[in-house]
Each structure stands twice: as C-alpha cells, then as structure tokens.
Design a protein that fits this description.
alpha+beta, 5-stranded antiparallel sheet
C-alpha cells in the first residue's frame, strides 16, 4: 500500500552541503530534466547525496523510511535548479518527487532544498495494479 508515499505530498525542506567538485561521468539534470554531456560547474549535489538527504527528509516527514530512493544524477547547487527522483515504498509502489534548490548563497557551503512529492503513484504495489482512479 502506498499510504506512506502519499502522505508525503505536503513537501519538506532540507539543508545540505554541496560538494565542491562534481563527478564528470554523470550527466546533470536541469530544471527541465534534460541531461547534457558535461557535469555541472561549481558546487553540486551528487546523486548519492541527493538520495541520502531526501531519504532522511522523507523519513522524518512520513515517519517511515522508503525502501529505496533513486535520483538520476547530480544537481547544481544553484537557486531554481531541480531534479526528478523516485522513491519506492516497502510494498514496491513507486512515487515521483522533485528536489528544487531554494537557496544557495555564494561563498556558503550549504544549500536549502525543497522536496515536493507527486500526488499520484507512478506504479502500484508489486504484483498488483495501482487501483487508483480519479
């Protein structure tokens, strides 16, 4: 049942410390969600860092830890930049969410992120149809 994932739709915020350099083998996600062949310049948040921080924030908000969180690549620590990620609940249901950089001050080593979870489940529990209707 995707109740834990759906309970997150209110969103949450988290402050993180971006890394100073980026992994050039990963492609970044821009606000539009497209990838390019070069990594973000300047401070960025790696996919692993985004997954860890969003897992912590989502766990605190929902009171239940997602089974898995996946983000496709690094995120430039620049105001307005965003990336789409997916969380998987214990029952196998999946729901998307967006991480957006709310603030990142020049010379600072921290960025404030806003996490907004989708209202609808991407995929229902493992082995079952989502059963969701308007």
């Amino acid at each position: 049942m995707a109740v834990a994932a759906l309970a997150l739709s209110g969103g949450c915020s988290v402050t993180v410390t971006p890394t100073g350099d980026s992994d050039s083998s990963s492609s970044p996600a821009s606000t539009a969600g497209s990838a390019s062949s070069s990594a973000p310049s300047g401070p960025s948040l790696s996919a692993a860092e985004l997954e860890q921080r969003s897992t912590e924030a989502l766990t605190q908000t929902a009171g239940q830890r997602p089974a898995k969180v996946e983000c496709p690549g690094p995120l430039a620590a620049q105001i307005g930049q965003s990336i789409r990620c997916v969380l998987t609940a214990d029952d196998g249901s999946e729901i998307g969410f967006t991480i957006t950089v709310e603030s990142s001050e020049p010379g600072s080593d921290q960025a404030k992120l806003d996490i907004q979870v989708d209202d609808e489940v991407l995929r229902g529990p493992t082995g079952q149809n989502s059963g969701l209707s308007g």
